[in-house]
Amino acid sequence: MGVKETENGMGAVFHRIKELHMEKRRPFLILLIVETFLLIAGIAALFGKDAVYEYGREAMTCNFGTFSEEYQGVVADGEKGMTGNMVEFTGITLPKGTYRIQLSYVTDTDWNNQVHVTDESLSMTSIRTNGVSLYQGLNHTDFDMWLLRDSDQVTVYAYYDGEGFLAVQGLRICRTNAWNRMLLFIMVCLFTVINVVCLYWGYDKKYSIPVKSKTVTFCLGLIILFASLPMTLDYVTGGGRFALSSDACGGNQGWFGERAVSDPHFAGMAARIRICVPHFLR
Q: Using one digit for the tens of pLDDT, what is the confidence trace for 219-245?
């Protein structure tokens, strides 16, 4: 009986929404047309040939090691005193975007040798990449780099730790459409929120949504917003304690939450978040 009543209630809501005839309202129709064109443009940007940048022997800066015709690259084989950045590809010019870094190599060790990407002209927030270790079972790297600004000073270097064999043969940088995919996802989420708000406004204007329902909707929106805040940060927030008390908001009027957050971005200061939950939302 309860399920049937719920279905009837939802059916009535959908029937009321249909009676709003939002598609016949000129402002909403223009909004849908603009959203459609933007989505089509976003989808079209996912296709097409990605740019590929290749760098061979002539682009290498060799700090130590010797060139090998057999491996067609710079080789180091455990000679004494050889450790550090063996090969560097410097002065690489790239427009902002997302890339895959593929360094061709041959090695007989695991974990010891590494590949990294740096740019002295950009801050850490403008170039996002972690670099990788080299493994004897592979012949090239394949890791992501997010470049948030145009640059002409990107440097890719191979680090040799002085043990085992390592031959660096060349570098290949492939541009990807990950940036376009992210923008398309953001557009879809933004357009969904805008359309829901428009429907809610039209529904309220015609049927007068009760104040209590508006309050619940507003509180749920705030909860979702605060719960999503960690996803907007480029670092992991510190943990802390969280406790609930039924009398902190005045007896049985609600619950009280307190969280002590220790975060290096607040210079060691503890931040407290206090939430008073009204009785009717418990």
A: 998 898 888 887 777 666 655 444 444
At position 155, the amino acid (one-letter code) is T
Average pLDDT (183-195) is 93
- Three-state SS across the chain? CHHHHHHHHHHHHHHHHHHCCHHHCHHHHHHHHHHHHHHHHHHHCCCCCCCEEEECHHHEEECCCEEECCCCEEEEECCCCCCEEEEEEEEEEECCEEEEEEEEEEECCCCCCEEEEECCCCCCCCEECCCEECCCCCCECCEEEEECCCEEEEEEEEEECCCCEEEEEEEEEEEECHHHHHHHHHHHHHHHHHHHHHHHHHHHHHHCCCHHHHHHHHHHHHHHHHHHHHHHCCCCCCCCCEEEECCCCCHHHEEEEEEEEECHHHCCCEEEEEEEEEHHHC
Q: Judge contact between 145 and 102, C-beta under 8 A.
A: no
* First-to-final CA distance of the chain: 25
For residues 91-118, average pLDDT: 93
Prediction pTM value: 0.67
pLDDT digits (tens, 9 = 90+) for 6-46: 445 667 767 777 777 777 788 888 899 999 999 999 999 88
The 10s digit of each residue's pLDDT in 116-135 is 999 988 888 889 988 899 99
Q: Are 121 and 153 in contact, with CB atoms under 8 Å apart?
A: yes
pLDDT score of 102 more than 90:
yes
| Residues facing 118 on adjacent strands | 155
Longest Cα–Cα distance of the chain, Å, equals: 83
Contact indicator for 28, 198 with CB cutoff of 8 Å: yes
How far, in Å, CA of 177 to CA of 174, rounded? 10
